[in-house]
Amino acid sequence: MSLFPPFNLREFLTLPWTDPFIEGTVWIVILGALVTIACGLVGNYLILRRLALVGDAISHSVLPGIAIAFLLSRSTNSTFMFLGALAAGVVTTLLIEWIHKNSRIKQDAAIGITFSTLFAIGVILISLVAGKVDLDADCVLYGEMDQAAVVPGDALAPPAVVRMATISLVVGALITLLYKELLVSSFDPVLATSMGIRSQAMHYGLMVVLSLVVVSAFEMVGSIMVIAMLIMPGATAFLLTQRLPVIFALTILHAFLSSLLGYHLAIWADCKTAGAMVVVAFFLFCLAWFFSPYQGILTRLLHRRRTRALMELEAEAS
Amino acid sequence: MAAASPFFPKSPKSSEKVKLEFPRIPATEEVAQAQSSRDWCPRLTRSSVPGWILTISICFFSFLLLAQTVHADRIGEVTDTRILEQAFRFFSFQDPSLRYALLGCILLGICCGLLGSFIVVRGLALVGDTLSHAVLPGIALGYLWNMSKDPLTIFVGAALAGILGTVVVRLIRQTTNLKQDTALGIVLASFFGIGAFLLSAIQRLPSGDKSGLHHFMFGQAAAISENDVILMAVVTGLSLLIIGFFYRPFLLSSFDPAFSSSIGYPTQFFHYLLMVLLACAVVIALQAVGVVLVSAMLIIPAAAANLLTDRLHHMVLLSVFFGILSAFAGSFFSFLGTSLPTGPFMVLGASAVFTLSFLLAPRHGLLPRLWRARSQSRRIQRENTLKAIYHVLEANDFKSENVSLKNLSARRRLTPTDTEAEVAELQRHDLVTREPGTRDIHLTPPGWTRACEIVRNHRLWELYLTNAAHIAPDHVHDDAERIEHVLGDKVVREIERRLDYARKDPHGKLIPSLEDLHRKDTFEPTDSPTGYRPA
User: Fold this and answer.
1) Chain B contacts of A101, Cβ < 8 Å?
2) Helical H runs in B176-246?
């Protein structure tokens, strides 16, 4: 038996929508898109501020947050877990800053130290709680998109979709309201301070929103692929344009495409949805990387060749 | 040299005087004490051996405590004897599986500590994190190669994937405007996503022994086999050899790539060589600590070592030592429990070492720096009080040897209570004495010397700024206020020489001379309660 079934374009495109055994396609695609939109919008600012890997750190430290919340409340109430994870995210950013400012450890090393220590604490706590070493590795690492998108009984929509939609709206509203402040403090903190914008407050606010987004996406895509959701849409968009509003539009487009095609891929290959979404996101990134109008690899090659041809022509003419 | 100095009249007594004064060895014991307390900076010796032993033992015992509570939390009836028995079993190295696990962990501690210190000083700390995630598709493909968990094919696949990952990071950096962190994030997440995709496809396959594959996520040191240990030893030995052989180029290209290229070292080549070694180290470490925590073993021991020393070879040695230490701690504590994971305990061991060195490192640690700042500000405050006493004495033309608290607090512009506290501080350092029953303050010989020194520094500096730097006399005070506390003997004497041994500062005040400073030999101990009186 081969790893993947033979490729059939018609099946690839229609199977998720026609197969009677596959339910909730719409919800899964919407959920994937919402997760990626919420993460991607915040991620754009991370890329601008060169904090991309702080997202990585926060997504790892969610684990001890959940474990400690469980130990304290002794219940699997998701509100407690959510609060615990959120607190862990904020503590992570504070710790990184603290280590970085109070010693000569560079920021990247501080990130690495903080998140790996917290993650180790999380694994130990969970292995104590669960009584066995292998915690639900699949859920922590790959997420459970398909389960989150199940519509319970008489509800109109899956609760996860409602939650992600709310968070996406909140993130969108915050970005619209604070557009100028975020823009200026991302590009030029000194100018921002002189304009009366509190850059420090902006930074911590962004970190809180980042924790919020990462924590809510954690369940769907797992602790590591959250980084893909944070960075890939923005990175793709940054290759294609330099205007921030266009970047936001492209982020949303990228989110929809990677969610839709990712689910198709997952159905075709019979794999986890989150992994397939990341594969598609990377594919889209590579497309942008090769064919971007002004910094694509192929575009540059063509440009160089054309210039050389022109120069040769001129040399001949003279 | 001092005898030839023009300050001292060439009297027969002068040589004796010089001997006594210049090394500043006062006769009485109190004075010696005062002197030593003036030696304000508690210069903790760098990398002192007792400090190390203390650090290690604290770390060890805190772990023991942690493991004990952890264990007790798991199984109700666990007793101390069980823990001790298990600890004894650990140290007797009887179990063959334990031997392999321990050996493997120690090898990876050496390898990660060695390479980690280079990536930390190069500012590439998170490259290790990226690499460890990027090897996942390689693991999947290595498994697919002959559908088995053969360490060698998985090793080759993973190492190739890791190297491909670094190449992609480099390409993204070179061909686009995206920054380093974004490029790392892209490679980390998308390689991991591809790997997760492949692994979940592999999970569906009916054939093969794939049960061990997800141990690569969190590691399982207990499953380390003889073959794994051989592989680890080969990689560690190779890294040691290569780093040892090319130590100089690695050192140079880490700190000054431009200079290292200019003297003919292929800097790019060494970058990629380091990356290849790093990829191999990450792959062997996966077995023991897992994908997520490999970067911890690379970064944390090296960062802890970085705080303790300023020399790269010390740092490398320390970092390797910390790597071994945390490997040992990790195996020990996971062995104590029945099913405690090794990798996370190794990481916690490394983090404990880091925390200790972050807080206590003699030069760069948080607490010693706070302590130094605090003792320096207190010294400055003491010196300011002494200076104020001198000013009060001077205002009175040195006719009386006592200063009243009232005058002093007027001079310091403080409330009597605050002045009282400052004087008490001076008394603790034997710089002043007070006659019981009165509010009068009396300088001791060391107090007098220090007060003269401070005033001398201040006035000389003011004069120097006006004469040599041509700054207006009314602008020099603030600068002198700051520098008077840090000028050393040599600088003061050089300034004095340049100023032709001037006697008056720009404001017309007399600059205390060296003779004034050492007038203390004119003080003689008496039976009076103050202890001193001018001759």
Assistant:
1) none
2) 180-204, 215-218, 226-245
